[in-house]
Design brief:
The protein has 403 residues and is of the alpha+beta class. The protein is built from 13 helices and 15 strands. The longest helix has 26 residues.
């Protein structure tokens, strides 16, 4: 009977089977792996600022004042890169000093700096993307991902907003624990917390108050790896860096030739600082990037290329009201708030082993300040005079001299 079946029928049946097989494979892939975001090249090009052409007298005066401020910062020891943009136009961009002080190799706009805690906004957005995809929830406990984690009642929301009460991993473990692998990673830290006796004392009960702590973002990066099955750096590259054209941003643990190119070294008191014991713990720190890539990140984020507006608004929502004042914290972003508790300024700084970093944004004035230094110098954080130039005198009377 089979021999009597027409060849056309056989071919049709085979075609149906192929279609069903391909469809099933796609369904399985979509269930297990998020679709990489493909962003139009024209949109990426629009993320970059443009030079000011033929500035009007007011803008020319503003530029002149900024140049004078950084001449003085250089004399005060600032060694690093600067990018200042307003309304999509570059008011100021410059490099001061060297990538390696001993080698006297001049910094350029391509020089990559360790972002230190300025890495935290990137970690927050990575988690929020997983939340947007439905793979993680703000109410998830850490035990959903790491059942042996000894601190109960800590949720993803608390980690993002520094309300977990967790102790800082950098100070949590006695020397007797620090054996075996020379440089621990995030999973090592989670394993230590699960096994060390006695369990390090938490700073506070979960959710009770704001307490800035690096452990929160170490755990968040570990959650990204656990839920995606990917290295944290690879996930960041696939979901944030590559879609935004951030070709100069890499995690410290990436030792490829592309990642090591243009990488600077951190210095303090004129001396290069060698690799730190906790350097390979990431999420709370660990990204190397440029001023241009950081601008692309912020511009792409606020243009809706990574998160929908509702979820982005959650990142910029103040979540710490225990102490009266203008300072607050959202999800991965510090902020100064208005009387109605909406953010007036968004920012995050960082310090780690000779690196000083700052991203400062005024959404209303469409101004973005990025300062990256690789030779420890407090002037990186002294922005008051600069803010007066950009926003106008008398408009920042409540901003501290040192942010």
């Amino acid at each position: 009977m089979l021999k009597k079946v027409q060849p056309k029928v056989w071919w049709a049946a085979l075609a149906v089977l192929v279609i069903l097989s391909v469809s099933w494979g796609l369904v399985r892939k979509n269930r297990s792996e998020p679709e990489e975001r493909v962003i139009n090249a024209k949109k990426i090009a629009k993320l970059d600022p443009v030079p000011v052409k033929n500035p009007d007298p007011a803008t020319a005066l503003k530029i002149s004042k900024i140049e004078d401020i950084f001449r003085r910062k250089k004399r005060a020891g600032f060694n690093g890169n600067v990018l200042i943009v307003q309304k999509g136009q570059i008011l100021y961009e410059n490099s001061f000093g060297f990538a390696h002080l001993r080698d006297k190799d001049s910094l350029t706009s391509n020089s990559r700096f360790q972002l230190a805690s300025l890495s935290k906004p990137f970690t927050a957005i990575a988690i929020l993307k997983l939340i947007q995809e439905g793979r993680v929830s703000l109410d998830d406990s850490v035990q959903r991902f790491f059942p042996d984690f000894p601190y109960h009642g800590v949720t993803v929301d608390m980690l993002l907003s520094h309300r977990s009460g967790l102790p800082n991993y950098i100070y949590s473990f006695p020397d007797s624990v620090r054996r075996g692998r020379k440089f621990p990673d995030n999973m090592t830290i989670l394993d230590w917390y699960a096994k060390v006796i006695p369990t390090p004392t938490p700073y506070n009960r979960p959710g009770r108050s704001f307490n800035y702590c690096n452990t929160n973002y170490c755990v968040l990066a570990a959650i990204v790896e656990k839920i995606t099955g990917e290295d944290f750096g690879k996930y960041l590259n696939a979901q944030i860096f590559a879609p935004l054209g951030m070709l100069n941003t890499f995690l410290v643990t990436d030792t490829s030739s592309a990642a090591l190119q243009f990488r600077t070294a951190g210095h303090q008191y004129g001396r290069r600082l060698e690799k730190d014991y906790f350097d390979d713990v990431v999420g709370d720190k660990g990204l190397y990037s440029t001023t241009g890539d950081i601008y692309r990140f912020y511009n792409g984020l606020t243009s809706g290329l990574l998160l929908d507006k509702k979820l982005l608004d959650e990142a910029f929502k103040p979540r710490s009201f225990e102490r009266a004042g203008i300072r607050n914290y959202g999800y991965g972003f510090r902020m100064h708030t208005k009387p109605d508790n909406t953010p007036r300024f968004l920012y995050h700084g960082g310090w780690w082993k000779g690196y000083n970093t700052m991203l400062w944004v005024c959404p209303e004035d469409e101004a973005v300040i990025i300062v990256l230094g690789n030779s420890y110098n407090r002037s990186t954080y002294d922005l008051r005079e600069l803010l007066e130039v950009i926003h106008g005198e008398g408009k920042i009377e409540d901003i501290e001299k040192e942010i």
